[in-house]
Design brief:
InterPro entries: Transcobalamin-like_C
Pfam families: DUF4430
Order of helices and strands: HHEEHEEEEE
Largest sheet: 4 strands, mixed
Strand order of the largest sheet: 2-1-7-6
Keywords: Signal
Shape: globular
Distance between the termini: 20 Å
Protein name: DUF4430 domain-containing protein
Organism: Parvibacter caecicola
């Protein structure tokens, strides 16, 4: 299987279809189903607010200040956020200790970079990192250990030793 960076270079249309497929696969469990109720991303049954723009802040396990976390199991993960303008350069690249259960989105928020997120029918959608916002069919995507997950970033739970990479892809 090709890594996301290789796929982006060799077959950008296939990468676009892969991203669309990932969004479609994420939609089914998040839709309100037969009940006619709006979809809820937090499991409470309450409709998700739209749009919601957020900056880095406590949202889920691993995001709170360590002094506020008691007895939480920590894991170490590697997080990189690649520059959209300077190919090969990283805006952020560090190993970090996070709470077990932290998602790919949670780890991104812990970096301290400005992160803008909008709620969608498919779950939280990263619309900008730093000063680089999604534009047209280009935008921010992520991989874990070189593989593109088929679920939204808030649903991808990181494991000890994982390498999370966020990068801006252009189609």
């Amino acid at each position: 299987m090709l890594k996301a960076s290789e796929m982006k270079k060799r077959c950008p249309r296939a990468m676009a279809w892969a991203l669309l497929l990932a969004l479609a696969l994420t939609a089914a469990p998040l839709l309100g189903g037969c009940s006619g109720e709006p979809a809820s991303t937090d499991g409470s049954g309450a409709p998700a607010a739209q749009p919601a723009e957020q900056a880095a802040g406590p949202q889920e396990p691993g995001e709170a200040d360590d002094s506020a976390v008691t007895g939480a199991d920590k894991i170490t993960v590697s997080v990189e956020v690649m520059s959209a303008t300077d190919e090969g350069a990283a805006l952020y690249s560090e190993e970090m200790a996070v709470d077990q259960g932290t998602s790919a989105l949670g780890a991104l928020k812990i970096t301290g970079l400005q992160v803008s997120v909008e709620e969608s029918d498919y779950g939280p959608f990263v619309t900008a990192i730093g000063s680089t916002a999604n534009e047209g069919s280009s935008g921010w995507t992520y991989t874990v250990n070189g593989e593109s997950p088929t679920v939204a970033a808030d649903q991808t739970e990181l494991q000890a030793g994982d390498k999370l990479v966020w990068e801006y892809v252009t189609f």
